[in-house]
Amino acid sequence: MTAAEEILRNLPQAATLTLILVFALIVLQEAVNGFHDAANAVATVIYSNSLKPVQAIVMAAVMNFLGVILGGTAVAFSIVFLLPTEMIAGINTLHEAALMLALIGTAVCWNLATWYYGIPNSTTHTYIGAVIGVSMAHALLVGAPVAEQLNLHEGRKILVTLLISPIFGFAMAWVIYKLIRLTIRSPEIYRPHAEGVRPPGGIRLSLIAGAAGVSFLHGSNDGQKSIGLMLMALMGLAPGVFAIDPVRHEASYSRTLEVIAELRDVVDAHLTDPEVPRAALYRAQLLHLRDVADRDFTGEVVTEEERIRFRSEILDLHQALGKALDNPFLTEILTPSELRKLNDAYDAMSRLIEKVPTWLVMLSAIALGAGTMVGYKRIVETLGEKMGDKHMSPAQGLAAQAAAMASIGAADFGSAPVSTTHVLTSGVAGAVQSSGDRMQMQTVSRILIAWVTTLPGTIMLSFSVALLLHVMLV
């Protein structure tokens, strides 16, 4: 049975119909992401006349696609894993589908509103706020503590990255602009943009290369987030098809079996330790995971129920590892070698359930490109004309691009999501400040207000919408 047939088999269910709507909204949200973040990536080349808009957008779509293909999925699932485990394991009830609808609906509405007013907004912040809001709603509805519904170990890493990345982007752009001033004497690079005037060839090529680099890194980081949520929706529509990596890569299985063996060594050493009350349960899960992985890789029959259980157990262990690494009492009784094994396992445990089908990546890239083509003008004008008291110069654009690439690259290295919008707009601000131009405080204040209000605003909105949809649908 093909994946499409498996999905269609469940169509009469109300939860399934809701998930189809969710999937369509995620694709729309990826287009809205193009309005904001992909437009940020090409703002400098379009505004400076280095490339025509269609050329820049095609380049951005291709580089975004390559970024997602080559960048893996660790960043995408770092946000997905913030959600309650019941949703990540497979959305199979109308309650969970309603929560997903609230999450995506909040993200779409917030991003469309900020785009309409030309405010560079962070899709990353929007997603995180919406995830926290629906997790709070889920906790209230099931009568569980919020802390149990959120992966706090992952959440702290994400929030720290989002906090320091704009500061890093501003400082990097400030320094890079000063370096450009010291090393490049050509006056053309410092002249503010003039309508219809193209920069000299070398400057133009540098701006194009910078935009391509930012677009690629956007795909490797920010462009992944909707893909993780699309995969969650597909898990609800066809859990047996998407529960485990459908392409049996030997390296993925070998690494999974290696991690399972290392975890068994740690668990076996603490089976009777009262500080690890669930050690026996974890050992049983590890034995089952090894059995299913062995059979699946060798081509033996693995039932749909076993695949779903496989995914659920990996998620359970992943969450337990995060809590263990945050538990000071537990880390005190573990040896440095055992702690290293837990850290390695936390990073690698979920790889077999994160595999994204290529067609899903292509759909994401197409949506990003289409969104950029439709909505790029508002964001390009904000960054090019309304950040400083003069129009952006090529040197300022180069500094902002280089700072953005450094910030996103560092986040990719740490498998942490970062806001392309925040690092690029803060980079533009740093370059403007470094050049001695005055900031347009009205624009800066609007951007800062959007930055500060996005997290609490989307938390409250998604929480309220989740409760409302639960009452209406469940």
Automatic annotation (TrEMBL):
Record key words, sorted: Cell membrane, Membrane, Phosphate transport, Symport, Transmembrane, Transmembrane helix, Transport
Keyword Chaperone: no
UniProt keyword annotation of Transmembrane helix present: yes
Source superkingdom: Bacteria
Pfam families linked to this entry: PHO4
Catalytic activity: phosphate(in) + H(+)(in) = phosphate(out) + H(+)(out)
Membrane topology: Multi-pass membrane protein
Segments traversing the membrane: 7-28, 57-85, 97-119, 125-146, 158-177, 356-376, 448-473
Biological process annotations from GO: phosphate ion transmembrane transport
GO MF term list: phosphate transmembrane transporter activity; symporter activity
GO CC term (a single one): plasma membrane
UniProt cross-references to PANTHER family, sorted A to Z: LOW-AFFINITY INORGANIC PHOSPHATE TRANSPORTER PITA-RELATED (PTHR11101:SF65), PHOSPHATE TRANSPORTER (PTHR11101)
Similarity-based family: Belongs to the inorganic phosphate transporter (PiT) (TC 2.A.20) family. Pit subfamily.
Name recorded for this polypeptide: Phosphate transporter
Species name: Alloyangia pacifica
